[in-house]
Amino acid sequence: MKTHHFPILIEQDEDSIYIVTCPTFKGCHSYGKTIDEAIQNIREVIEMCMEEQQMDDSNKFIGFREIEIHQKASA
Q1: Beta carbons within 10 angstroms of residue 39's beta carbon
Q2: Is 41 part of any domain?
Q3: Is there a domain that residue 27 lies in?
């Protein structure tokens, strides 16, 4: 059995729902009321994506960064 490691991005919307995305696959998103629920749900979606889509081995996950942008206040 081969083990795969996939990056996921977790965000929270205005209704406090956790949105989870796996950038390895196009359209690979899920959500949950808790982070644990969202992660369990994205695990299932990733498994489906692995069956339906070919994994692109040409891109290698490096990491996520946060960038700070200063915006002038509107007048």
Answers
A1: 15
A2: yes
A3: yes
